[in-house]
Write a structure and sequence with these properties.
The complex is a heterodimer. By secondary structure, chain A is an all-alpha fold. Chain A contains three helices and no strands. In chain B, the strands form six sheets. Chain B has a five-stranded mixed β-sheet with strand order 2-1-3-5-4, covered by helices on one side. In chain B, strands 12, 13, 14, 15 and 16 form a five-stranded antiparallel β-sheet that branches. The longest helix of chain B is centred in the first third of the chain and has 16 residues, at 28-43. Chain B is elongated. Classes of the chains: A mainly alpha, B alpha+beta. The interface between A and B is medium-sized, with 16 and 28 residues.
């Protein structure tokens, strides 16, 4: 079925989050996963790490504040040492 | 604040930087000023000093690049990653890359270059990202930061001082070296018959003979000259100077390198320097000067550039009309190019390679030809 609007947006948020966390938080996207789950333990932990370092409320969720920060221009040096 | 894993830091306090590639978003001198201003932010709270190189390997190489540019962190077009930098260390460590797909500006209408440069320099000096949203080292760019006057947060100051400590003692305490530097291998030897100089100036009745990163300090009351590192007296001055002269009436020595000049009084580099040499009235074609001397009686300063020279009136503080003129016409017998020149006992002493020409400005003739190092008691 074509993705509904909400599902499509959720998908693009997920893309954004995975790119951001991969670039700055050393998130290894788990290639074994068939379905990308935003509540996978790995992603939640990375989101919490990012929220903590960037002074956001630590929810572990892709809430609007967190997504907004992911869209903001920033320094390219990772926040978690590569 | 945070430092990088393993806490890498520079083991010296005088660092060099070189701008390798510019952006076309801004005039070059605007980029130069933004980088200088960003360096000053860290100089003011640490013992660190910086000088600019125009060739060769510097500690901090600065480039504007796009997308994949030869390291493992390619840029991503406009927005998102603005720049990145590497922690202290050899080779590419310490270097800074700006994403030239951003719109770099002097204000905040685009991405403010000074602000991002100050942040990236924090990385080049060893600071990692801070969780404090007020800190310069916070990773997210805050275009609403008040730029005038810009101030580091206490978090940034605590971070950088945890690596390098506070600034040196107050400038009132002169940096008096305890002893002159013994000449170690690789340093210039005063009695080398092929010795040439980069620049020579008088200073309060003494003579300073500059060579590479060092200088000999000669006074009339002791035979043996002292030998020092330039950075011992003037940490922020570059090495390999081009020219220097003393303006006696103002008790200032002007020092030249490339297209910049510094003013020093005693141990102190004067605020507001370096400035561009074109502020003196040189045409844009002049990229550097070879030598300079100021005639304290006539209050005229002579600037020598390859085969020609300019004359500057110290009273009106302006370059005189009718210049440049040929050195050969007005200083017959002096062989260009002139490396250095100073005035003593009413004569001009011109230095070219290992030769020195004593010139009588009244008789308009060379009275003696000597070895360049004849003043150093060999």
């Amino acid at each position: 079925y074509p993705l509904s609007g909400a599902a499509k947006e959720e998908d693009s948020n997920m893309d954004l989050a995975q790119q951001y966390l991969g670039k700055y938080y050393n998130l290894k996207t788990d290639t074994k996963q068939f379905v990308r789950r935003k509540d996978s333990n790995l992603i939640v932990k990375n989101i919490q790490g990012m929220q903590k370092l960037l002074g956001l409320e630590v929810t572990g969720k892709l809430d609007s504040d967190t997504l907004e920060v992911m869209r903001q221009p920033r320094c390219g040096v990772p926040d978690v040492g590569h | 604040f945070n430092t990088f894993p393993g806490m890498p830091k520079w083991r010296k306090t005088h660092l060099t930087y070189r701008i390798m590639k510019y952006t076309t978003d801004l005039p070059r001198n605007a980029v130069d000023s933004a980088i200088e201003k960003a360096l000053k932010v860290w100089e003011e709270v640490t013992p660190l000093t910086f000088s600019r190189l125009y060739e060769g390997e510097a500690d901090i190489l600065i480039s504007f690049v796009v997308k994949e540019h030869g390291d493992f962190y390619s840029f991503d077009g406009p927005g998102y990653s603005l720049a990145h930098a590497y922690p202290p260390g050899p080779g590419f460590y310490g270097d800074i890359h700006f994403d030239d797909d951003e719109n770099w500006t002097e204000d905040t209408s685009g991405t403010n270059l000074f602000l991002v440069a100050a942040h990236e320099l924090g990385h080049s000096l060893g600071l990692f990202h801070s969780a404090n949203p007020e800190a310069l080292m916070h990773p997210v760019y805050n275009s609403f930061t008040d730029l005038r006057p810009f101030r580091l947060s206490q978090d940034d100051v605590n971070g950088i001082q945890s690596l390098y400590g506070p600034p040196r003692a107050s400038p009132e305490e002169p940096l008096v070296p305890t002893k002159s530097v013994p000449s170690a291998p690789g340093t210039p030897a005063k009695c080398d018959t092929a010795l040439s100089f980069d620049a020579i100036s008088t200073l309060r009745g003494e003579y300073l003979f500059f060579k590479d990163g060092y200088f000999w300090r000669k006074s009339n009351w002791n035979l043996e000259p002292e030998f020092h590192l330039i950075s011992t007296f003037w940490p922020s001055l570059p090495s390999y100077l081009d020219a220097a002269y003393e303006d006696n009436s103002r008790d200032i020595v002007f020092v030249f390198k490339g297209n910049e000049l510094w003013a020093i009084r005693g141990n102190e580099v004067q605020a507001g320097y370096p400035r561009g040499i074109h502020t003196l009235g040189f045409p844009p074609a002049v990229k550097k000067i070879d030598a300079a001397v100021s005639d304290k009686e006539k209050k005229k300063t002579y600037f020598f550039v390859e085969q020609k020279y300019w004359r500057f009136d110290e009273n009106s503080r302006s370059m005189e009309q009718g210049f440049p003129r040929l050195i050969a016409d007005d200083f017959p017998g002096v062989k260009p190019k002139v490396d250095a020149v100073f005035q003593a006992f009413g004569f001009f002493y011109f230095f070219s390679g290992s030769s020195q020409f004593e010139f009588d400005p009244n008789a308009k003739m060379v009275t003696r030809i000597l070895k360049s190092n004849s003043w150093l008691h060999c």
